[in-house]
Design brief:
Keywords: Metal-binding, Zinc. This protein has an eight-stranded parallel barrel, surrounded by ten helices. By secondary structure, the chain is α/β, with parallel strands linked by helices. Helices cover 45% and strands 14% of the residues. The protein has a single domain, classed as TIM Barrel (Alpha-Beta Barrel). Helix 2 packs parallel to helix 3, helix 5 packs parallel to helix 6 and helix 9 packs antiparallel against helix 10. It contains ten helices and eight strands. It is globular, with a radius of gyration of 19 Å. About 6% of the residues have low confidence.
């Protein structure tokens, strides 16, 4: 199956009322594990690169491996740049072979977000590359696992994702002025690992989906309760971003395995076997939850 753009994956998802998982992947082992799981479930899949993992020459290394594996896959695969804010870096990603990119101007004033997003879409579209943008802001829920690790503001309060929900009154103008292919919306989720269970604003999501002419994306998919994810998909979410959940499964199993061993002089492939299987299980559960299995 040839590489596809984000639009080519998300249009059938929106028409078919299902969602495609987008997994951040940091190395070849993770990428292969995600692809093997997607193939086993006959699901399209979106492989995402985090900017921190592909700075400098690492972009070329990441893309070389991902493109080769994706080109051999039997299911549709999109290679997506996740959460980039530097337009020059995004243009480099477009030139290097990503089939989709995200420009994140969500913390900027509306007019500046529009201006920068339009610059990215104009460049990307001339190269046949899809663009995702963000309106409203999905913040970082926590840095670690304890209550004290939650992001704290100077006034002693904690970040509240409800404070920056996507404004329906801005959506139509944003899409029309930027010509984006997909839009990430803020409806109550947060990045990272939750300290408290999120409360999604389904009334807001339903309104946004009715107004949107493009597929909607939800970030912060890790740890969001399954019933809330199902309802979000029913109300129009076509792409769900996932990272913390799969990397947590990987490292939990890695820690467990290493704690069982007395001799640490083991092959990396041996040490990775159980953790990668745990990652695959987490990927599989998310794909089935979103209803994209048997869609390829």
């Amino acid at each position: 199956m040839a590489l596809v753009t984000l639009s080519e994956i998300l249009k059938p998802a929106r028409d078919g009322h299902y969602c495609v998982a987008a997994f951040d992947t940091s190395n070849n082992d993770m990428t292969l594990a995600i692809l093997e799981t997607a193939e086993a479930l006959r699901s399209p899949v979106i492989l995402m690169a985090l900017c921190v993992d592909i700075e400098g020459d690492k972009m070329e290394y990441w893309l070389d491996g991902a493109r080769k594996m994706a080109s051999r896959a039997s299911v549709p695969v999109c290679l997506h740049l996740d959460h980039a804010t530097d337009t020059a870096f995004i243009k480099k990603a477009v030139d290097s072979g990503f089939t989709s990119v995200m420009y994140d101007g969500s913390v900027l004033p509306f007019a500046e977000n529009v201006k920068n997003t339009r610059e990215v879409t104009e460049y990307a579209h001339t190269h046949g590359v899809s663009v995702e943008a963000e309106l409203g802001h999905v913040g970082d829920g926590i840095v670690g696992r304890s209550e004290t690790d939650v992001k704290k503001n100077r006034d002693g309060t904690y970040d509240n994702p409800d404070d920056s929900l996507t404004n329906p009154d801005e959506m139509s103008a944003f899409i029309e002025e930027t010509n984006v292919d997909a839009l990430a919306v803020a409806v109550g989720t947060a990045h990272g690992v939750y300290v408290h269970e999120p409360r999604l604003h389904f009334d807001r999501l339903e309104q946004l989906n009715k107004l949107s002419s493009v597929p909607l994306v939800m970030h912060g998919g890790s740890g969001t309760p399954d019933e809330q994810v199902r309802e979000a998909v029913r109300l129009g979410i076509c792409k769900l971003n996932v990272f913390s959940e799969i990397i947590d499964a990987y490292y939990r199993e890695m820690k467990k395995q290493l704690n069982e061993m007395e001799n640490m002089a083991i092959w990396p492939s041996t040490a990775n076997l159980r953790p990668l299987n745990a990652l695959k299980e987490a990927v599989s559960k998310k794909i089935v939850l979103l209803g994209s299995d048997n869609r390829a």
